[in-house]
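Researcher: Next sequence.
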Amino acid sequence: VSEVDVLLISNCFSMLALPFITEKLGFHGKIYATEPAMHFGRQLMEELVHYVTRKPSVNRSEEWRNDYLMKMLQDGVLKDSHDYLGWMELYSEDEVRRAVSKIQPVSFSETVKLFGNLKATSLSSGFCLGSCNWLLETEYCKVAYVSASSTFTTHPSPMERPRLFSADVLILSGLTNAPSADPDSMLAELCGRLSSTLKNGGNVLIPCYPTGVVYDLIEYLDGFLDRNGLSSVPIYFISPVAESSLAYSNTISSRSFEL
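Model: Next structure:
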């Protein structure tokens, strides 16, 4: 890691290991990301630290390593993991702040020069607010790194595809053979179950990240409740970073959200 010169961050979900890299593994190079990715990535890490620090005492927190539990974990969630006994302790809030402070923000379509003859340009990927793909150029070739991307019309800026067409090499990540579910039909099913539950006096709990698709979900559910005579039903956004997340994304409508 200490020999790496540059980190190009594609979206906020790609940042969760950043404090390990910058504060524990000796990275001293440059880091680039869009400002929204920086902001939401910091929130994701702050939420993670908040929940993990509610762990039991140090003595009890090591109990998962006993032989009986290790055998169960090895046959299950750790089946494909390696060197899990050497896992590092999670970073602290201070390490999160120091790591994020080292990021140099860029805008969409902004080009930065690296080492003279190499240029890096961030292109909107349409995946979430601030997410981007990276186009690396020299006078001889163009290499495009395509991370999580989406062509659906939601809160993020649309995916910028034309400049990717001229690339000599594509490096792709996060691929699927084909979409396994249609978002519209999934939302219709969710709203159908939500409506029947609420009309029967129940409550609905939706686990989600404090950023990303949650903004589209809140906007969609807000409109659905209003159209179906359920506008008096409150929406609670529960997260230690909920207030700052909603304030930054500017997705609060006329509805009153409880944080």
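Model: Residues 251-256 have pLDDT under 50 and may be disordered. The two ends are 39 Å apart (CA to CA).
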